[in-house]
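Quick one before lunch.
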Amino acid sequence: MQENMDRLQLQLKEDIDRAQDFQQLDNIRVRYLGKKGDITLLMRNMNQLSPEQRPVFGKRLNELKNTAETMLEQRKKELYGELSVKRWESERVDVTLPGKPFNPGRKHLITVVLQEIEEIFTCMGFKIAEGPEVELDYYNFEALNMPKDHPARDMQDSFYINREILLRTHTSPVEVRTMQAQAPELPVRIISPGKVYRRDDDITHSPMFHQVEGLVVDKGITLADLKGTLLLFAREMFGKDRDIRLRPSFFPFTEPSAEVDISCIACDGKGCRICGGTGWLEILGSGMTHPRVLEISGYNPEEVTGYAFGMGVERIAMLKYGIDDIRLFYTNDLRMLSQY
Ligand code: DAH
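Model of the 3,4-dihydroxyphenylalanine complex:
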């Protein structure tokens, strides 16, 4: 028994010295001191000893157990004392260094302006409608009263995918899609925000840009409704002193058609460099929905009338924030984007 214990203590010391980490030390603890550990078993077998031997071996065994616990602790300190010094060296922080700047994400300026436009119109009772960016020639042109030889259909201006399919060049096709889905129910009162695509690229044109389309169809809708709605929009967007004017124009899908100007936000209409001396800034195209478009879309032009408008979001943003190059929106320069 005495021999047994001496051998055990030697073995234990060897094992502990060899251990390299916490896990190995814990395995050793279990092997010697666990429920079925060597030392534990010896203690359990004490009842086989004679009454004279028992106290002697009991004392020795207790010592062995305490030694085992002390050695384990000691080794742990050796290992982890050293390691934490190493770790501290490698993770040392120089608290005198200046902090690293933290750049939180933010909404893109176009998203901000788009959401502002949506808010103004939804507050007036408009619903939001969406349509596909990959569009049929039929919806993009044909149903909008643009005959086959219309210049806007030129391959030079549009991104065609094949003869029938293209990237939409404007959001107006959503007008027809919405009416067809809803007819004959009244009223139709939607805006349709989204991306559009044209083969254009200069300081005021980008091959992808955003538009917001508007459409109202009901009994007795007039040009006065269009003008009132757009006046309210202009004042919400550009300030309560804005005026608007409707300038006669032409679009195949509206009759009559008008381009809408706001009084210049820089000079209030006096005439300056921004408005080219005219006192006015063009912000959108509009008109009374062409009877043919109503008919194609499932409404009777004898019974209902409608107005529509379409605006470029980048143009609105450029005017509102005094940005003179549309490409600044899409070159992803944070020095530009983080200003707004
Ligand atoms: N779709 C036209 C364009 O992209 C803009 C437009 C003009 C939309 C008149 C309309 C409208 O709804 O009535 O240039």
